Amino acid sequence: MSQGTLYDKVWDEHKVTQLPNGQDQLFVGLHLIHEVTSPQAFGMLRERDIEVARPDLTHATVDHIVPTSDQSRPYSDDAAEEMMSELEQNVREANIEFSDPSTGDQGIVHVIGPEQGITQPGKTIVCGDSHTSTHGAFGALAFGIGTSQIRDVLATQCIAMEKQKVRKIQVDGELGAGVEAKDIILEIIRRLGTDGGVGYVYEYAGEAIENLDMEGRMSICNMSIEGGARAGYVNPDETTYEWMKETDYFQENPEKFDELKPYWESIRSDEDAEYDDVVHIDASELEPVVTWGTTPGQGIGITEPIPHPEDLPEDKQETARRAQEHMRVEPGETMAGYDIDVVFLGSCTNARLPDLRRAAAIVEGRDVDDSVRAMVVPGSQRVQEAAEEEGLADVFREAGFEWRNAGCSMCLGMNEDQLEGDEASASSSNRNFVGRQGSKDGRTVLMNPQMVAAAAITGEVTDVRELPEVTPV
Amino acid sequence: MSDFDADIPEVRAVSETGVPIRGNDIDTDQIIPARFMKVVTFDGLGQFAFFDVRYDDDDNQKAHPMNEERFNEANVMVVNDNFGCGSSREHAPQALMRWGIDAFIGESFAEIFAGNCLALGMPTVTADSETIADLQDWVEANPDGDIDIDVENETVTYGGQTVDVDVDDAQRQALVEGIWDTTALMSANSGEISATAASLPYLK
Q1: Residues near A258 by Cβ (< 8 Å), separated by ≥ 6?
Q2: CB atoms A195 and B108 under 8 Å
């Protein structure tokens, strides 16, 4: 078992006791809730006549079903309106703070926690959403839970868990132009597999990780779960602390910053920490990665050929054949030139301000291809506002993108933003599962925001580094 | 806080017929497409389990084991590698449970999915790919044949043979001893909870 890692330290710090079933009972420092996975848990509490134990450590937002166009109430979709009303009632009754759209603080749960400073190093953070791993970017221990576990947390502010192993993923070297955090994580998942992380927590370390801004670290931790790891984290450092300082919480409580910094420093993995496994990746060898299949592990460098199923390990062959049939791609060819109908720049993976800036730099002065329906869905109202203030929204609109309101949107197709029929999308989101973006025949190609922007311009999967007169960052 | 001790049965063994669902990396978006999650309860989700692979655009049935009459009464789902990956939605095991599934046997399960199953008292037992392939073939040929899952002793018996399987330690203990209602279990430790909270630097 690992020793001296951030995971070990934060676990010990929050361990309440060992349960008779062998699991540990962990205290939860922050419980984030949203409209899709929490109503049933509140229902379970009502059935048992239990009150929410720590509303002060619980925070709500609405993101999955919220319309990104017309947000006037009642929502035009009755089911969405019902879910929103239910959440409003639940948070009102339990006295839980709610970043609803009227506050200007609403957004995807994994974007707003870090913005407001309630996501902090050394906290345990849970949410009924698998991408909760995102918050690990701050050195928090953060993971997704199911609805029965949400009930547990609402009722006790604790979670029952078994400790997992820790795999250090050491990413050395510098990223080349047009290559981003997204490509690092797609490469990790491709190499270690979609189930490679089952039973593990991932610690992302090394020069390439340390050089990333917080948004890049969030993109990586976000997709830990796509590699099977329920949680992933980066040790907190000056980049983390700079972010924390600017957040609401520490602006309002500046003394807390100095009080907590020693704790944050203390939970960093020790120099001589022991890991259950270590993997090395050379960032300088990476190129933009795109997916050719229907799992996030079916990725490939933009100049590399799509694999022949028979060249893959035997247990991957059948999945690959079905994926290639669904995607209508040919082994031996590259993904460059694959026709795109829809461009989606959004999601908890890649819809923060720097993501939009990099994409806007590619889009500026160009037009979206006539064959493409393109949309930008900012990750939060704050991202939206900031992007509007600095002119990014105009860049996108002038190029022919729709500029939407904040939410999960087409990442999972629970609101009106969906693929239709067999449309193919170039998407900055995290899952290319069959049916994920709202149409069972839809086809999703995952890629970084600059690559998404390039696809919007050309109407096909395009190596952003080859786009004429463009300098990718 | 002991007034909500739910009636939690022990799950020592499951003995029922099976249904094979073949393929690796079957994700929870397939098990329950997101559009069916626009609900505030889990009631009625069973009919939407695997909807998009079971029905075409006009809601006509497609070829799928769960559409076959011979598997209508099945309670044990036999699956392959990384079953239940993707979204944390408990709607996925809830939908399968409401369709009639009580237990899973597979090569491996995504962690959140397995955790959700445990919270519902459904075992997720694992075996190597060869064992699973044999069992899937057997279920295919013997849709009425009983599969006995012995959670406590980590075996599966079918067609006159017994094979070894793995059950995660905590899962085995929780199911066998009937202590998988973690809400009741954890709320009993209110003193320790307060002490831990009081010790956390960020809550001081």
Answers
A1: none
A2: yes
